[in-house]
Protein 1
Amino acid sequence: IIKQLVDRMECIQEIIAYKKQNGIPILQPEQEKKQEDNLKQKLGDNVFEEEILNIFKYIVKNSRKIQAKALFNYNIFLIGFMGAGKSTIARRAAAELGFVYVDTGAIYRTLGLLACRQGVAPDDAAAVTALLPDADIRLRYGSDGLQHMYLGGEDVTESIRRPEISKYASSVSAIPAVRAFLLNMQRDLARTHDVIMDGRDIGTVVLPAADVKIFLTASAEDRARRRHAELAAKGLPDCYETVLADIIERDRKDTTRAAAPLRQAEDAIAVDTTGLSLQESFDALLETIRRKLGQ
């Protein structure tokens, strides 16, 4: 029996190949329960029954993880309206799950900052595209574990959060050449890490086979209140009415743009955080992810 358990560990790669070829889900707890019941019957009155069962459970538990990691890294995709809390709660969920959080919006914001500094109109597709060959945009993770964006070697993580750069980011991200330019950067991160990634075309273009797709939303008024408080905390006060008007206009542009318009994918799970606190929103997202992954 012990040898059978050892053999199970040694043939994990063969199991993975077979499951991948035949489209069989990796995690199948009901099958593991059946195997455990069969093992109990075989053991009968074996004096080492408890010890052997404990070994079996340990191997099963860890082989599930090994199978999942060997086959692919988990890719979780979030999309949603501006101010719905994607970045904040996705970052917390990534930390809770041990994943890497990739804020793709920050990548587009960095390119928007470049256009702003170069005096290029963000909706001038030709001029923005001309900036791409020499654009030195890098994503790194600091000692604090947070994502930092670099432009030409300069850490611009805080600079890209200014309201005017948000408008630049919205415009440059609608340019097909820009999205194609940044595609490999995003895919490379997903290939080498367990990631929670947000962005409007992550689930359809960048990571079409993402394990979990979530559409995060909240009412415009709720999002305006959150954004207003966030700006005030950063020393960038703006009146609530202005913030609300900006969000409504951003929603209009994001949902009607020609390139990658904002919409919920057919296979995405909707999570509405209207009226929820930050902790409640986080709990709702984490529960949805774990339920989908079968954890």
Protein 2
Amino acid sequence: CLQCSSHRSGTLPLATLQIPRAAPMYIKCDASRSSTVGSPRGPRLRCDTLFHNARLATMATAAHGGSDGGELSLGEIERGVLACQGGLISHVGPAADASAIDARELIDCGGRLITPGLIDCHTHLVYAGDRAHEFERRLAGESYESIARAGGGIVSSVAATRAASEAQLVSESLPRLDALLADGVTTLEIKSGYGLSLIDERKQLSAARALGQQRPVNVVTTLLAAHALPPEYAGQSDEYIRLVCQEILPTLAREGLCDAVDVFCERIGFSPSQEGRVCQAWQGPWRARRAPDE
């Protein structure tokens, strides 16, 4: 991952090089020597690594080589170079316009595409157990609501998640995170919502924070304690929302474990008025969000 030099805070955006694992791509250079790419005109640039012979998606609509007309423009540069210094992007542009660039390492991209890092804004990455058998029922035409009312869905994941340790949640979630990183994700949101108690929601969110520390990725955590009614609160949705608003939410917010709050507002979830109570209780810097029909 390469952090854009204009965003040194480490939040957004990031860039990832999408190259098939089997493709030969690295040309190693002697550490005592540099390789030069570009025109000798203009000031010489120095960098640690230079990606060249690349297609670049800059997302700048006026960029060289960008599409026009009614099509979505990615600000694409067909024959571009991207220079990195100290882990930051120091130069992006067409190869034809580049000044001489001295690089300690050259990477020939072979015409492959470099894009900004992808953002996955809605994930339930941290959980234990699985619901693979429910996919067969969905493929057979059964609705999620029907499965949930029969004891499946969210509630079926709660018991396994409650029984798991934080270390187990981290261990089981790392492969899922690694799969996202391999696809170019550099920022993702991770919701809780399979604990449905203060102790277990804390465990999920703490595991999510740990994932962000163990991998080069930005993790935004969302408290989704209002995801479903836990078994011990069956038929007592107002009492459970009171627990969320008066204990779970303020405690985990004070502990710095949640960046946002979410509510599953649906016939099998919570009502608009209950959603409003959670939103009013949230005192964080971001607005609470509604989770629509999943």
Protein 3
Amino acid sequence: IRATEDALAREGLTVELSDAIGEALGAKGWEEDAPDHRTLLARLARAREGLHRPFIQLGEPWADALWGELDAMSEEKRGAWEALLGCLPNDRPKPSKRWLTQREKKVEAVGEDALRQALVRWLPRVGERSALELSAIALPSAERTLVSPRNEELARGLVWMCVPLMDDVLAGVLGDLALTCYRKLARVGPRAPKLGNACIRALGEVDEVATAGQLWRLELQLEYRAARTQVERALSRMAGRMDLDERELEELSVPGCRLDRFGASVTRFGLWDARMEVGERLKVGVTWSRAAKIGR
């Protein structure tokens, strides 16, 4: 099936290829009650719909959004983006040095700010339910949120693009994406574990408070022990590079929520000050007082 998808991306849907896919879909032995068989049938059906492009498969909301933006660009600008996206698909747990070198050169052509904004638009949509109707097979609602193998490879490349551009926003995007990827689907298991692994690795590559905070968040919220083990290793490596023990790193990465060292915060509302204070047993109290007069 992957060979068929690659041929479609290179040459488009020919009559001969369409007929061959039709024969495969009509072959005996498929069990539509089996999730793995449904996944393969869906891939064949999408192939016959002509949804394959050089580096992406249409039919998933995030992929459709990405392709739509490319289609609306000028020819010169689209060429730079296609050159970048075309080198991104990655099926390895960690990108090679050659891949990283290619990435740096291609990013210059599209611009770091433009790429960062695109990542913030596209990655949060991974895992959204597809509205595409396939004539060959009806997919359960949960399985309409799966990420195809081709798109997962591109998404992994996009995740690794976040590393040199990392800020608080991208760190949050990767944390959310990891949770989406590891979310368990009925009769399928985690939605996209390899992509989730890439998110953890990417967060672990950047020694920042924001990335550490996302990793601690994942350790608390992920259900899969194997994923939590990866998070723990990433935090351990990060703490070592920052010359901290893990407890110190955890303390640094906890959001302060604008509280001072006494656990209090003052916010002004017109002529009044509201003082919020966290007391014993984590009880929160709010007291109001007239705001101090400001000299003219």
Protein 4
Amino acid sequence: GSAAVAGRLGDRWELLAARSNRNFGEYAPGRRRPNYDFLTVGVQDEFQQQIEQDVERVRFTDNEQDSNLFKARFHIDDDQSLTFSYIGTELSYNNVSDRQVLDPIDGSVRDGDDAWRRYGDASTTSDSVSLRYNLNPSSPLINLEANAYFVSTEGQRYTEAGSPVVLNGTDMTDLYWMIGVCEQNPVPDNAYNACQAGLSNNNHTQIDTYGFTLENTAHFSLGGMDGFSSNHGIEYFIDKGESTTIRERDGRQLASMDNTLNPNGERSIASAFGNLQWENETFTLAAGLRYDYYK
């Protein structure tokens, strides 16, 4: 659902606020398509057809999204205005899930919801604010806009320990952790996979963007012909990214490291651009040039 409210305060202020919520439930697969069959057995059961089960829904496929918007515009005078904007979004969902019908320890058959396992959760938030100045006097040669903005995007992903390594009915993952094998440095090669299966991962990623733009749009005649316009300006922004992964066992932090898939770093881009356009009721002709400098 969503709700919004807007209004004016006197001759100078315009306000807008809105909020929405979107909630998707768990996915219910159709049975008329050929690819339904792969859902009838557990993913970790090596697709043993003798233990097929009907699947009414795919567990842990739900997600929820909240969004917020606020905008305020102040008219300095008839030619100038100042606009503040905020947009915020939060998305939460399950990180990964799995289905295993056969219990790896005793070989018993799980049924229904018990066969599904939720391995973790994840969330993503994005917040952006901007302050825009506009100068639009009666002259057709001036429609100036200056905009400064900040955007922060943050991701949090938690993954629980995976399926244990089982040998002859013995949970080797729990055994190695219990007797201290997994705390040795280095971990013995024959125990490495079992020890890794007992670790959970907590990954945090954040990207912050700072930037500004300055541009002007002009309308004019050329050689006695109307319909010409030009837009030109500059832009600059910088991105700063940070990402860490923490490995845990039963709530104990064992290691913290940079995330190699999303490495820490920084980049900046400076741009200059220009566009020239002519149009009438039938045709539009446009040409543009942009220069970007990356660092």
